[in-house]
């Protein structure tokens, strides 16, 4: 049980990082990103490949994962920054699918659907599995703390205020003399870097990545986490991630207790309950558990 | 582990979570305490068409074993988690099975990605993992013996299939493969085999599994003037391809894995479309009772190869634990080969196996998916293949090679 | 491609594939035109329609042609219910909030269907016809028939929009909701009609996909990216645009199967989106933006 809880807290850390990354792009700047799992995947693959094929040290791999994801984010932003939100939702969704397909088909680089196994983890094998879990718990939550600190500062800096201005009314921000495109690109790069870092850490915790792991469902989960926590709020992103893991794991135990249904029906109840939670949250608690304090519009 | 922190954290997960922390440890606790088997099949996502039957097969075996008195008096409890055909969900599910339920083995991982993702957890926590996954890379992992893969090596499968096809006169074979961990290796084997046998692979396409239209792919098959097409995919896509080939009037041989066209194929396609389709799967001897018993348990419908394999997974784990006298993952690992191969008395079901083991006799389990003998890497060996042809909504056995 | 026939065949295959995408894309754009949000739940509506048609056809013996209206009505009802109960209250929070909730609705519908029917593949009670051949080019009568159904459904919508009071009111709201309101058109009623028609068309489209393949809880999900691509390429909110966009995406995906690699079909849809958005952001037939 202990090991399970620690492992789930490690997962909560990954989800918190992802929610923080999404929060910069969606929460602060108002650009919806339904392709966040794509950036997460880019970071995971970059770090996994550099550390296992080129034997880079892990911290360097993580940094590279974040950097390459940020680069992808920058390119993405240049393409989509002019688009309205609805187009953006569709394009980003497509982007994540493209990443997954490339990872499946470019076998020479990514090992295709076989995935990459044996990705090194810090002291993995030299310590007990539970010690490894605890070490990683420290690493991932340190990353969360650093990201939280930096992003919170950015959020309350002039940079963050411009992003919010863009979110509330892009035209007004432009009239006020702000280079909107440039700010959007910077927001996207920052968010994608955090997503990439989450992916990089994830790859080294799991020791294995494969294209199937970067499916759209994870994106929905993170959107749910941020919505639950409070869109625009950095503290909310972290609370939301913990809420998310409690929900997806808690429904496991609740579904098991439902009598008289087949295992498939239990699985359906569980996934359905998660979706329903998102709908109910949007309806009854749109500001999230930790509402953004500086938010001017509901 | 300290009781205090355990309870406080368990409370986080709600009462239901706290309740399940009463799960009993895998080591021999009090006499009569139940033994937990974890099952991790795909119940949602792309593997959804397979997982439910795989789980049913496990439950059937466990019920039978419990009715026969369980493992040395201890009942077996099955805990199933959905792997969502997603390695991320599979890892969380495996964590729960291992850490909360204290499962001594995990049965029935389907997607290769899920299996490879949970494999390190299994060997690090000394839990035996029984899988049906197709990727040959799985048993090459440093798994210390904890992995048992009942899906024959894909090179071996394709290679025997090529021999069979050539013996039936196939000379130009079109290889149509879903993007999977064994598409490319299958192609290598086919090219090699047919070149050596005086034939040729007349075309090779890797397609995206989730698509709904494959007309242009079928056009290429038609243009290639192939006498045989090898459909190396899964249920949903092979169903569409069979329909398209029928429409296009493909006259050649259609050949596929038995997991890509099973009893449900007859529900979604008319007989005139499926008639003549040849499938193959690993198989036990013709007179083996295990296959027929499973068929009867499923209500006399065709048994798909994955369910046959999970049937054997559960039986192997139970008999190995009975042989060892304890139900830890390591005990299962160390005893699977003692009850699955060798000179012991042949048994084809868990009841007979438990009875013989209790009487101190050596047994050799012959399963529904084959004779289930494992090599040192955990790969299945020495299996036969059964070739069947679809005829008016049933499969008829052609031959057993 | 050695022959003009090969090219003609690919184009024809593309049109057949496109005509299956057409109705869900039109449904998506119909809802977008009036409500100004992308309703990702069209995937769920497709699956709901496909299963409703299946129940009618297989369990109650209704012929396929007569089951299509049932698919329409059930999907339309599901769509309307989802809109009124879950999505409408979110409208004040902005279109993106509604869009995200619609993603959740798709997952919810998928699992309601999984709960009720399980994961097994199902097929309609329908003989499968051989292709016709014209000078080496093959055409399938069933697919032709499907294309016919799609055109009839789309044509009915065009007629409705062009020649009826309701249609004019819908266009008025799509053009300028404020002005329409002043003129006495009830925007709520029009919104309901748009969702009803949009979800219903997606349902018919889902059943047509099912006729051409087989159905399971993921039926709508498999085509959804191509459907969005069709809607964007044609121009969000444009109904003729959705029809044209579906053809472009359908042909593009089949061409990709021949020219590029079949394993990269979905990438074509994405590239089509990017190309259109780069050179003609309002879409091929999109008007104002």
Automatic annotation (TrEMBL), chain A:
<keyword id="KW-1003">Cell membrane</keyword>
<feature type="transmembrane region" description="Helical">
    <location>
        <begin position="32"/>
        <end position="50"/>
    </location>
</feature>
<dbReference type="GO" id="GO:0015658">
    <property type="term" value="F:branched-chain amino acid transmembrane transporter activity"/>
</dbReference>
<keyword id="KW-0812">Transmembrane</keyword>
<dbReference type="GO" id="GO:0005886">
    <property type="term" value="C:plasma membrane"/>
</dbReference>
<feature type="transmembrane region" description="Helical">
    <location>
        <begin position="187"/>
        <end position="207"/>
    </location>
</feature>
<dbReference type="InterPro" id="IPR043428">
    <property type="entry name" value="LivM-like"/>
</dbReference>
<keyword id="KW-0472">Membrane</keyword>
<dbReference type="InterPro" id="IPR001851">
    <property type="entry name" value="ABC_transp_permease"/>
</dbReference>
<feature type="transmembrane region" description="Helical">
    <location>
        <begin position="213"/>
        <end position="231"/>
    </location>
</feature>
<protein>
    <submittedName>
        <fullName>Branched-chain amino acid ABC transporter permease</fullName>
    </submittedName>
</protein>
<dbReference type="Pfam" id="PF02653">
    <property type="entry name" value="BPD_transp_2"/>
</dbReference>
<feature type="transmembrane region" description="Helical">
    <location>
        <begin position="62"/>
        <end position="80"/>
    </location>
</feature>
<feature type="transmembrane region" description="Helical">
    <location>
        <begin position="6"/>
        <end position="25"/>
    </location>
</feature>
<keyword id="KW-1133">Transmembrane helix</keyword>
UniProtKB/TrEMBL annotation, chain B:
<dbReference type="Pfam" id="PF13458">
    <property type="entry name" value="Peripla_BP_6"/>
</dbReference>
<keyword id="KW-0029">Amino-acid transport</keyword>
<dbReference type="InterPro" id="IPR028082">
    <property type="entry name" value="Peripla_BP_I"/>
</dbReference>
<feature type="domain" description="Leucine-binding protein">
    <location>
        <begin position="34"/>
        <end position="376"/>
    </location>
</feature>
<dbReference type="InterPro" id="IPR028081">
    <property type="entry name" value="Leu-bd"/>
</dbReference>
<dbReference type="InterPro" id="IPR051010">
    <property type="entry name" value="BCAA_transport"/>
</dbReference>
<comment type="similarity">
    <text>Belongs to the leucine-binding protein family.</text>
</comment>
<keyword id="KW-0732">Signal</keyword>
<dbReference type="GO" id="GO:0006865">
    <property type="term" value="P:amino acid transport"/>
</dbReference>
<dbReference type="InterPro" id="IPR000709">
    <property type="entry name" value="Leu_Ile_Val-bd"/>
</dbReference>
<keyword id="KW-0813">Transport</keyword>
<feature type="signal peptide">
    <location>
        <begin position="1"/>
        <end position="29"/>
    </location>
</feature>
<protein>
    <submittedName>
        <fullName>ABC transporter substrate-binding protein</fullName>
    </submittedName>
</protein>
Automatic annotation (TrEMBL), chain C:
<feature type="transmembrane region" description="Helical">
    <location>
        <begin position="94"/>
        <end position="113"/>
    </location>
</feature>
<protein>
    <submittedName>
        <fullName>Branched-chain amino acid ABC transporter permease</fullName>
    </submittedName>
</protein>
<dbReference type="GO" id="GO:0006865">
    <property type="term" value="P:amino acid transport"/>
</dbReference>
<feature type="transmembrane region" description="Helical">
    <location>
        <begin position="12"/>
        <end position="34"/>
    </location>
</feature>
<feature type="transmembrane region" description="Helical">
    <location>
        <begin position="64"/>
        <end position="82"/>
    </location>
</feature>
<keyword id="KW-1133">Transmembrane helix</keyword>
<feature type="transmembrane region" description="Helical">
    <location>
        <begin position="148"/>
        <end position="170"/>
    </location>
</feature>
<feature type="transmembrane region" description="Helical">
    <location>
        <begin position="40"/>
        <end position="57"/>
    </location>
</feature>
<feature type="transmembrane region" description="Helical">
    <location>
        <begin position="190"/>
        <end position="211"/>
    </location>
</feature>
<dbReference type="InterPro" id="IPR001851">
    <property type="entry name" value="ABC_transp_permease"/>
</dbReference>
<dbReference type="Pfam" id="PF02653">
    <property type="entry name" value="BPD_transp_2"/>
</dbReference>
<dbReference type="GO" id="GO:0022857">
    <property type="term" value="F:transmembrane transporter activity"/>
</dbReference>
<keyword id="KW-0812">Transmembrane</keyword>
<keyword id="KW-0472">Membrane</keyword>
<dbReference type="InterPro" id="IPR052157">
    <property type="entry name" value="BCAA_transport_permease"/>
</dbReference>
């Amino acid at each position: 049980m202990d090991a399970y809880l620690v492992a789930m807290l490690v997962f909560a850390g990954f989800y918190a990082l992802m929610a923080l990354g999404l929060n910069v792009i969606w929460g602060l700047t108002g650009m919806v990103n339904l392709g966040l799992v794509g950036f997460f995947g880019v970071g995971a693959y970059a770090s996994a490949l550099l550390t296992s094929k080129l034997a880079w040290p892990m911290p360097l791999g993580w940094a590279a994962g974040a950097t390459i994801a940020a680069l992808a984010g920058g390119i993405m932003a240049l393409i989509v920054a002019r688009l309205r939100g609805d187009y953006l939702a569709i394009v980003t969704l497509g982007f994540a699918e493209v990443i997954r397909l490339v990872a499946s088909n470019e076998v020479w680089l990514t090992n295709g659907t076989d995935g990459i196994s044996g990705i090194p983890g810090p002291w993995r094998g030299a310590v007990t599995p539970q010690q490894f879990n605890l070490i990683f718990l420290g690493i991932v939550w340190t990353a969360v703390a650093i990201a939280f600190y930096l992003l919170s500062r950015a959020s309350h800096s002039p940079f963050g205020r411009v992003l919010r201005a863009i979110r509330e009314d892009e035209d007004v921000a432009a009239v006020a003399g702000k280079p909107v495109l440039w700010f959007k690109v910077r927001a996207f790069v920052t968010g994608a870097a955090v997503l990439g870092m989450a992916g990089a850490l994830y790859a080294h915790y799991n020791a294995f990545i494969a294209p199937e792991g970067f499916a759209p469902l994870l994106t929905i989960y993170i959107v749910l986490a941020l919505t639950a926590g409070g869109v625009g709020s950095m503290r909310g992103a972290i609370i939301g991630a913990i809420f998310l893991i409690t929900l997806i794991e808690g429904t496991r135990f609740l579904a098991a207790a439902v009598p008289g249904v087949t295992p498939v029906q239990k699985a359906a109840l569980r996934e359905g309950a998660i979706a329903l939670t998102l709908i109910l949250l949007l309806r009854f608690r749109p500001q999230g558990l930790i509402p953004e304090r500086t938010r001017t519009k509901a | 582990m300290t009781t205090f922190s355990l309870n406080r954290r368990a409370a986080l997960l709600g009462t239901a979570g706290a309740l399940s922390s009463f799960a009993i440890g895998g080591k021999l606790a009090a006499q009569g305490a139940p033994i937990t088997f974890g099952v991790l099949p795909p119940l949602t996502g792309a593997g959804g068409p397979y997982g439910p039957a795989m789980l049913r097969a496990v439950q059937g075996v466990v019920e039978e074993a419990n009715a026969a008195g369980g493992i040395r008096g201890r009942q077996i409890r099955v805990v199933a988690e959905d792997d969502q055909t997603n390695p991320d969900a599979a890892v969380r599910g495996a964590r729960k099975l291992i850490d909360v339920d204290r499962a001594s083995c995990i049965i029935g991982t389907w997607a290769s990605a899920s299996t490879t993702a949970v494999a390190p957890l299994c060997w690090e926590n000394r839990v035996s993992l029984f899988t049906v996954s197709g990727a040959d890379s799985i048993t090459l992992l440093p798994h210390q013996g904890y992995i048992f893969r009942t899906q024959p090596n894909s090179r071996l499968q394709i290679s025997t299939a090529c021999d069979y096809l050539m013996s039936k006169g196939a000379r130009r074979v079109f290889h149509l493969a879903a993007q999977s961990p064994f598409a490319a290796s299958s192609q290598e084997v086919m090219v090699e085999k047919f070149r050596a046998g005086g034939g040729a692979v007349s075309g090779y396409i890797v397609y995206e599994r989730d698509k709904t239209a494959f007309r242009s792919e079928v056009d290429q098959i038609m243009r290639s003037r192939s006498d045989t097409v090898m459909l190396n995919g899964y249920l949903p896509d092979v169903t569409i391809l069979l329909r398209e080939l029928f429409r296009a009037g493909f006259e050649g041989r259609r050949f596929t894995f038995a997991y890509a066209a099973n009893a449900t194929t007859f529900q979604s396609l008319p007989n005139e479309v499926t008639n003549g389709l040849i499938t193959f799967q690993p198989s036990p001897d013709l007179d083996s009772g295990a296959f027929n018993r499973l068929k009867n348990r499923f209500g006399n419908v065709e048994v798909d190869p994955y369910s046959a394999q999970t049937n054997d997974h559960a039986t192997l784990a139970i008999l190995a634990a009975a042989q060892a006298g304890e139900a830890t993952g390591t005990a299962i690992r160390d005893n699977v080969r003692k009850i699955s191969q060798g000179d012991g008395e042949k048994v084809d079901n868990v009841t007979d196996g438990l009875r013989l083991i209790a009487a101190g006799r050596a047994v050799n389990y012959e399963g529904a998916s084959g004779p289930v003998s494992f090599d040192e890497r955990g790969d299945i060996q020495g299996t036969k293949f059964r070739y069947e042809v679809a005829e008016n909504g049933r499969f008829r056995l052609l031959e057993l090679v | 491609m050695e022959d003009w026939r090969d090219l003609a065949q690919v184009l024809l295959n593309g049109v057949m594939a496109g005509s299956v995408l057409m109705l869900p894309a039109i449904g998506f754009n119909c809802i977008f035109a009036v409500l100004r949000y992308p309703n990702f739940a069209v995937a769920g509506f497709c699956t709901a329609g496909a299963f409703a048609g299946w129940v009618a056809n297989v369990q109650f013996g209704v012929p396929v042609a007569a089951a299509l209206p049932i698919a329409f009505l059930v999907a339309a009802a599901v769509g309307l219910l989802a809109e009124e109960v879950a999505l409408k209250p979110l409208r004040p929070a902005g279109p993106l909030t509604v869009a995200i909730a619609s993603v959740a609705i798709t997952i919810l519908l998928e699992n309601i269907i999984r709960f009720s029917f399980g994961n097994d593949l199902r097929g309609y009670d329908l003989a499968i016809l051989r292709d016709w051949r014209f000078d080496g080019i093959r055409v399938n009568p069933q697919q032709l028939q499907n294309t016919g159904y799609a055109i009839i459904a789309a044509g009915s919508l065009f007629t409705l929009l062009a020649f009826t009071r309701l249609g004019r009111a819908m266009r008025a709201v799509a053009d300028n909701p404020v002005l329409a309101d002043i003129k006495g058109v009830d925007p709520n009623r029009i919104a309901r009609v748009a969702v009803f028609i949009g979800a219903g068309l997606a349902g018919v489209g889902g059943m047509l996909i099912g006729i051409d393949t087989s159905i399971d809880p993921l039926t709508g999900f498999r085509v959804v990216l191509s459907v969005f691509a069709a809607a964007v390429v044609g121009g969000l909110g444009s109904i003729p645009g959705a029809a044209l966009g579906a053809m472009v995406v359908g042909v593009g995906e089949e061409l990709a199967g021949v020219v590029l690699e079949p394993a990269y079909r979905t990438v074509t849809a994405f590239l089509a989106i990017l190309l259109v958005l780069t050179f003609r952001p309002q879409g091929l037939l999109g008007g104002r933006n």
